[in-house]
Amino acid sequence: MLRPLATPTGAPACSITLLNELPSLRRAERVTAADPKVQVYSYSPGEFGKENILICHVSEFHPPDISINLLKNGIEIPNAKQTDLAFEQGWKFHLTRSVSFTPQKNEEYACRVTHMGIGKNFVWEADM
Question: Which residues are in the Ig-like domain (predicted)?
Answer without folding.
Answer: 36-115
